[in-house]
Amino acid sequence: MILTPKQYLLTCLSEECAEVVQRCTKALRFGLEEVQEGQLLDNRERLIYELNDILAVIELLEEHGLDLSDIGNKEQIDKKKAKLYKYGKYSVSKGILKT
C-alpha cells in the first residue's frame, strides 16, 4: 500500500496522539515532576513536547490541503468544557474524583 501525503500525516497524527496518551499515563503513575531515568525533561515538559508535535502535524496537514480551520472553535470548546465539568461533578458524587 502506498500512502498519499495526507494519509501519511494522518498516521503520524495518530502516533503523536498515542504518545500524548503514554505521557499522560506516565504522569499519572509517577507524577508530573518525575524525570525518567536517562531523560532530561520531566513528565510535564515531555507532555508539552508531545502536544507541540501534534500541532506540528496539524500544520503540515493544513499545508497539504486538509481543511482544519475550525480547530479552536470557541463554541465547541465551551460545550466540551461544560460536559467535562458536568461529568466531573458526577465523578465527585460517586467518590471517584476529589474536589
Notes on the protein architecture:
It is a single chain. With 99 residues, this protein is an all-alpha fold. Helix content is 68%, strand content 0%. It has helices at residues 5-30, 43-63, 74-93. Helix 1 packs antiparallel against helix 2 (43-63). It is flat and about 50 Å long. The model has no long low-confidence stretch (mean pLDDT 97).
Short structural summary:
The protein has helices at 5-30, 43-63, 74-93.
The number of helices is: 3
Helical percentage: 55-70%
Radius of gyration: 17 Å
Class from secondary-structure proportions: mainly alpha
Listing every helix as H and every strand as E from the N terminus to the C terminus, the arrangement reads HHH
Q: Major sheet: size, sense and barrel closure?
A: none
- Uncertain parts: none
Average of the residue pLDDT scores = 97
Could you tell me the number of beta strands? 0
- Distance between the first and last residues' Cα: 50 Å
How much strand? Answer: under 5%
Return the domain count.
Answer: 2
